[in-house]
Amino acid sequence: MQKSDKLLLVFANAVKAGGGIHNTAELAFMLGEPYTPAFTKFLADRVKKGQLRRVAQGLYESVLTPPEPETAIYKIIKKLRSDELSYISLESQLSHTGEISQVMMDRVTVVTKGRSGTFATPYGVIEFTHTKRPVEQLVANLYFDPDIKMYRANTEQALTDLKYCQRNLHMLEHE
């Protein structure tokens, strides 16, 4: 079996298992290949040939077996900040709970213990905002959302994050 066919099979199996977004090192491991510049070039060639799509720096999905569109952006978020506590908060969470009437269509706002940054993906923009607050102060106000397999801030925490980050408070329905 050719390496490109093996790569597509890896993606197809990953989507069946609930995955579908992988970084370069994971793909090298799953194919039994060394993680080298040559492997990175192989992935770039698969993108040029239209077999893979680069969804963010170093993250890929198969165009033949992409992940579910409703949850793909959350998979990307988890891959981008896999080593740090990150949770849906700010405007995205307040829209989700109905505290603001605007629906966040093309952006997900995430509070993270990792670095701040903004990433444009095919599924929308991901905005990471760093918090210096200790994890111990945060965890009591977070809950796990099984639909997206990520943590979300409760309303009180999302409002606290919004004020802490000095974001626009004019959208709030009940302020």
Description:
This protein has helices spanning 3-16, 24-31, 37-48, 69-80, 90-97, 135-138, 155-164, and strands at 22-23, 52-56, 59-62, 86-88, 107-112, 117-121, 124-130, 142-145, 150-153. The protein has a six-stranded mixed sheet with strand order 6-7-5-4-9-8. It has a three-stranded antiparallel sheet with strand order 1-3-2, sandwiched between helices. The chain is α+β, with helices and mostly antiparallel strands and 175 residues long. The model has no long low-confidence stretch (mean pLDDT 90). The radius of gyration is 18 Å and the shape is elongated.
Pick out its properties:
single chain; 175 residues; alpha+beta; Arc Repressor Mutant, subunit A; 2 domains; three-stranded antiparallel β-sheet; 7 helices; 39% helix; AbiEi
In short:
By secondary structure, the protein is an alpha+beta fold.
Write the layout of secondary structure elements.
Elements: H1 3-16, E1 22-23, H2 24-31, H3 37-48, E2 52-56, E3 59-62, H4 69-80, E4 86-88, H5 90-97, E5 107-112, E6 117-121, E7 124-130, H6 135-138, E8 142-145, E9 150-153, H7 155-164
Parallel strand pairs: 4-9, 5-7
Antiparallel strand pairs: 1-3, 2-3, 4-5, 6-7, 8-9
Give the quaternary arrangement of the chains. Answer: single chain
SSE order in H/E notation? HEHHEEHEHEEEHEEH
**What characteristic shape results from the CA principal axes?**
elongated
Kindly, what is the distance between the CA atoms of the first and last residues, rounded to a whole number of angstroms? 61 Å
Organism: Alishewanella jeotgali KCTC 22429
Protein name: Transcriptional regulator
InterPro entries: AbiEi
